[in-house]
Design brief:
The chain is mostly helical. The protein is 66% helix and 2% strand. The protein folds into four domains: 47 residues, no CATH class; 145 residues, RNA Polymerase Primary Sigma Factor (Orthogonal Bundle); 70 residues; 89 residues, Up-down Bundle (Four Helix Bundle (Hemerythrin (Met), subunit A)), CATH 1.20.120. The chain contains 18 helices and two strands. The N and C termini lie far apart (74 Å). The relative contact order is 0.12. InterPro entries: RNA_pol_sigma-70_dom (IPR014284), RNA_pol_sigma70 (IPR000943), RNA_pol_sigma70_r1_2 (IPR009042), RNA_pol_sigma70_r2 (IPR007627), RNA_pol_sigma_70_non-ess (IPR007631), RNA_pol_sigma_r2 (IPR013325), Sigma-70_RNA_pol_init_factors (IPR050239). This is RNA polymerase sigma-70 factor.
Length: 412
């Protein structure tokens, strides 16, 4: 009777192969087989939900860099930085502000440090020395120093700017800046002679490696000006295209180059009389936005087109340096893992150690100078260790053991 119901009756439980070959598998067994198949596929592909394993697997796909690869990436970072500094040389007031900051470091009553202004000079023609290997000391307890003092001491350990070289270079920049100002007064900003003098100033100014505080300050001046100009341009376009229903292509063709010209609207109404009636009620708002653009031009002392050109060159240089830094960081993530493993069981999770080590790695990329002859891993090890030990001292709740005692414990 049971056989008549379609249920197989057997004396011995069938093996797995027999079940797989038969057509009488139940829904439950089919579901189990599907789960097993999916698990096998996931294991073949190497998928996992463990974030540490996923991170390590992603990290393992990036090839390690050779010494030549490190130099090539470091040169690209320098090239991007030089392009940014060259663009900033065309920004009125930028060179003067750096010269004033340098003069402050030479003040006899309250002299500042050169390392607070810049870290050195980029010389693309300088030769590349051979690789030098050096022992990187274990960092001292991080709780005794704050971040800024620690970074400053690290810079002084590596070697700060040469005062004599700085004096000679800044004097050249000062003289060339005076020549640019004289050319502007004599020939005007758009004259060929003035542009030649500005190009020479950019050539002298671009090798300076400003510290992030001064670098970001100058870059943000351009960014803020461009954002304010674009906000007013967008408002004018909304008025003309959305409210006055001027075709977008027509507006884009007529408006660029006339951002702050007050009589642009009159000329546009004469050239396109069919839009004149719809534009006239919006005249007050359009004129008000143009006045804001004109005010920004007066503050920066440049027309909108030149402000945008400086911003374009800034963006290209920053993108070039950012891509190169990203490659350098990704290629050295394994170094962070190998160092972080030595600091487990000290009060922080492994992922937290990796995160802090990556912060140190990014600092090392910013401060790496390949011309000194050291491999990047040699230089980065100090920064990674310092970042990890600082985070353990700040965040962990365990009692910190001195470094020399930890080494003794590890040897036991």
């Amino acid at each position: 009777m049971i056989n008549d119901m379609g249920i197989s009756v057997v004396e011995v439980a069938p093996d797995e192969d027999t079940l797989m070959m038969s057509d009488h598998s139940t829904d439950e067994s089919a579901a189990e087989e599907a789960v097993a198949a999916l698990a096998a596929v996931e294991s073949d592909v190497g998928r996992t939900t463990d974030p540490v394993r996923m991170y390590m697997r992603e990290m393992g796909t990036v090839e390690l860099l050779t010494r030549e690869g490190e130099i090539e990436i470091a040169k690209r970072i320098e090239e991007g930085t030089r392009e940014v500094m060259s663009a900033l040389a065309y920004l009125p007031g930028a060179v003067e502000s750096i010269l004033d900051a340098y003069d402050h470091t030479q003040d006899e009553e309250a002299p500042g440090r050169l390392s607070d202004l810049f870290s050195g000079f980029i010389d693309p023609d300088e030769g590349t020395p051979g690789v030098a290997e050096a022992e990187v000391p274990e960092p001292e307890p991080a709780s005794e120093l704050d971040d800024e003092d620690e970074d400053a001491e690290a810079e002084e350990t590596v070697g700060g700017p040469d005062p004599e070289e700085a004096k000679a270079r800044f004097e050249q920049i000062r003289q060339q800046n005076e020549a640019v100002q004289a050319a502007i007064e004599t020939h005007g900003r758009s004259a060929k002679e003035t542009k030649a003098q500005q190009a020479r100033l950019a050539e002298l100014f671009s090798p300076i490696k400003l510290v992030p505080k001064h670098f970001e300050r100058l870059v943000n001046q351009v960014r803020i000006s461009v954002e304010q100009v674009r906000a007013q341009e967008k408002a004018i376009m909304q008025l003309c295209v959305k409210k006055a229903r001027v075709p977008r292509k027509t507006f884009i063709k007529a408006f660029p180059g006339n951002e702050s010209r007050q009589d642009w609207l009159d000329d546009f109404q004469k050239a396109s009389p069919r839009y004149a009636d719809r534009l006239e009620p919006l005249r007050g708002d359009i004129t008000r936005a143009q006045r804001k653009i004109a005010f920004e031009e007066a503050v920066v002392q440049l027309p909108v087109t030149e402000i945008k050109e400086i911003n374009r060159r800034l963006s290209i240089g920053e993108a070039k340096a950012r891509r190169a830094k990203k490659e350098m960081v990704e290629a050295n993530l394994r170094l962070v893992i190998s160092i972080a493993k030595k600091y487990t069981n000290r009060g922080l999770q492994f992922l937290d150690l990796i995160q802090e080590g990556n912060i140190g790695l990014m600092k090392a990329v910013d401060k790496f100078e390949y011309r000194r002859g050291y491999k990047f891993s040699t230089y980065a090890t100090w920064w990674i260790r310092q970042a990890i030990t600082r985070s353990i001292a700040d965040q962990a709740r365990t009692i910190r053991i001195p470094v020399h005692m930890i080494e003794t414990i590890n040897k036991l």
